[in-house]
Amino acid sequence: MHCGEAFGMKTLKETTVLITGGSRGIGSAIAKRFAAEGVNIVLHYLQSHEQANETARACMMLGANVMTISADLKSKDQLARMREKLDSHGIKPDILVNNGGIAHYGLLGDVSEQEWDDVMAVNLKGMFLCTQLFMEHMVTQRYGRIINVSSVWGMSGASCEVLYSTTKGGMNAFTKALAKELAPSGVTVNAVAPGVVDTLMMDNFNPEEKAALEQEIPAGRFGSADEIASLVYFLSLPESSYITGQIISPNGGWHT
Predict the structure, then answer these.
(1) Please, which domain of life does this record's source organism belong to (predicted)?
(2) CB neighbours of residue 196 within 10 Å
(3) What is the pLDDT of residues 16-75, one digit of tens each?
(4) For the whole model, what pTM was predicted?
(5) Would you kindly state where each structural domain of the chain is located, as residue ranges?
């Protein structure tokens, strides 16, 4: 099977990818990577309207059809309305990239119950709701790709990021379990767990902290959003059908 083929009578250019949290950073890079191959894009965002439009314009310049859509990942009702809107346009995603999420830094003793609930709701509940809403079409057509953007901290844990690490560890367990459930239906489920990536999330670190962190990484640098996007794209390809239930961590040799 060639890269331009997908399943049945569809070609890769006739498939649709839904990317949550797609307005900036890794999500934006993922959208542009798919757009470069002519895949139809559904770009989800919450409040970053201008950034979502900027990413959409970049994708259209690459020749892709793009729809932007806003919804709160914590809200089942809003996500259901998002699916209804897509259905009304005849759009049924064949590839779901659960990228939307929020970070949290701080000692566990300082985490409030509200902070715990909010991060859990976005990072875990949002992934659950989106997957549940959009996997039915994949199962019915016996083809689909679900790719969850996790973190190396979900594998190794991080001091002062207990809450965030917990959500990403849950995402990894979700990935492994759902992969077994959907494998007979021709749907793969994998997670990409990046190490340190040079995005706006790194703005919480000062230059000295960044330099010290780079020295810990055998590759001697942070990863780029484009590198993460290329791995996500690879996992979406038809010829990646035997890769499922895997947590793949591009981290420059930092954690092995």
Answers:
(1) Bacteria
(2) 21
(3) 999 999 999 999 999 999 999 999 999 999 999 999 999 999 999 999 999 999 999 999
(4) 0.93
(5) 12-248
